[in-house]
Amino acid sequence: MNEKYSLDDFYNVLLLRNHLEFLSVKQLEDLYQNTTNFLVFLDTIAVFSEIDSAFLLFKDEYISKIERIISINRFKSNDSDIKEIINSIIIFLNQIKCYDTSYKNILKNNYLAYQEDCRKVEMDSEQILLESLGYDAVAYKAIVENNLELIKDADDYFLASINYFIEVIPELFKNNEIKQLVIDSIEKLAKKGWPFNRTNREFSNETKANLQKLK
């Protein structure tokens, strides 16, 4: 992870992905009408623009949702710094909307290939990619808060998320309790896959080996 950003910044990006993919405009409006939440939203979009902007290329509604949240909140504050951040975000979104189709497709294909490489899994459709990206926030919350109930019935997504975290935020696993919790969870998934779900079992073992390589 870029040293200028914290794990909290990273989690906020994961959470924003989740919200953009799974929440309706009305739900987002309700969530971000709170001033504190809106300021976190603005800060997260700023981080998003530097580390994960290609995500916004996959659905036009992502940008529409962001613009809607900004439009209903932008005049609630007279703070010049906040206004400057909002204007920068609007410029950023307009730039993305001006990408031509061929350039957009190149960025999307590169992003998909990167995500598949990180997650150690092939994705047959853009929707599977977006669901996996949206699920990352759930996996992160589950392991940080030791609430593994959150990940039930989503084994493949969980394993893909863990591989992604190993790649982009290995510092998360410097916490030995989190690392051991994840190893224990993966071992349970491997047993769950025995003897019939060979793919799940192999994916579990591969993910465990990937985690244990971390020093």
Short description:
With 215 residues, the chain is an all-alpha fold. The chain contains ten helices and no strands.
Written account of the structure:
This protein has helices at 7-22, 25-32, 35-51, 60-73, 80-97, 101-119, 126-144, 155-168, 176-192, 198-212. It is mainly α and 215 residues long. Helix 7 packs across helix 8. The longest helix is centred in the middle third of the chain and has 19 residues, at 101-119. The two termini are 16 Å apart. The model has no long low-confidence stretch (mean pLDDT 90).
Major sheet characteristics: none
Contiguous uncertain segments of 5+ residues: none
Chain-averaged pLDDT? 90
User: What pattern of helices and strands is seen along the backbone?
Assistant: HHHHHHHHHH
Quaternary assembly: single chain
Percent helix among the residues?
Answer: over 70%
Intertermini distance: 16 Å
Strands, count = 0
Radius of gyration: 18 Å
- Strand share of the residues? under 5%
Described by the principal axes of the CA atoms, the overall outline is: globular
Q: Structural class from helices and strands? A: mainly alpha
Number of helix segments?
A: 10
Keywords:
215 residues, mainly alpha, 10 helices
Q: Layout of helices and strands, plus pairs?
A:
Blueprint: H1 7-22, H2 25-32, H3 35-51, H4 60-73, H5 80-97, H6 101-119, H7 126-144, H8 155-168, H9 176-192, H10 198-212
Helix pairs in contact: 1-3, 1-7, 2-4, 3-5, 7-8, 8-10, 9-10
